[in-house]
Amino acid sequence: MVDVDDTLCLTESVCFELENEVLRRIGRPPMPRAVHLATWGQPLLGAMPHRSPGVDLARFEAAYRGVLDRYVTDGRLDVIPPENLHAMDRLVAAGRTVMLLTSRTESEMAHLLAPDHVLAERVSAVFHAGNTRYRKPDPRVFDELLAATGLAPGQCVYVGDSPGDAVAAGTAGLHFVACLQSGVRRREDFEQRHVDLFIDAFPEVVDAVTRLENGP
């Protein structure tokens, strides 16, 4: 299973611009990039009071939807590179089940869940804040996924980009592959975390899964 932000597609820098545009629209000053980076990976509405102290979350959320839609329509957000889609195709062709697990809300995922999206024929299930009771780094975030598939944790590999992803997967008993492609995190950020393998770019996930399947 695969995380979305800065794993399947690179999003932090675009989201920083998007969220600052929303803040400008509701009359708020922009947040510093360092603040966005420090809170990256948290659910959006949970992070915004730290990114913009005193922000009216209802106004922010109302303005966010329109800006998000424009960024998606303009091809600025959630652009999945062809090589990442090819890697997913290789996993599916090898008989592996590919699923997504993200902390995004259902509305934030709506365009990716569309039946005509390129992910539709590649991903068998998507788990998000709308159909899971817990959020990373809580290991129970995988409960619904494991229950729906009947898989044991040790049969699953989670590919993500953050120490919180590693904690959630490792504590739940899943294998974890850390993807460093975004440059937001480095190997040392995962010190003493549950990481089975590091990859520098998402397409390397195919070989990583094979290595984990074959064992030491």
From TrEMBL:
It holds the Pfam family HAD_2. One of its GO terms (biological process) is DNA repair. One of its GO terms (molecular function) is phosphoglycolate phosphatase activity. InterPro entries: HAD-like_hydrolase_sf, HAD-like_sf, HAD_2, HAD_sf, PGP-like_dom2. This is Phosphoglycolate phosphatase. It comes from Micromonospora viridifaciens.
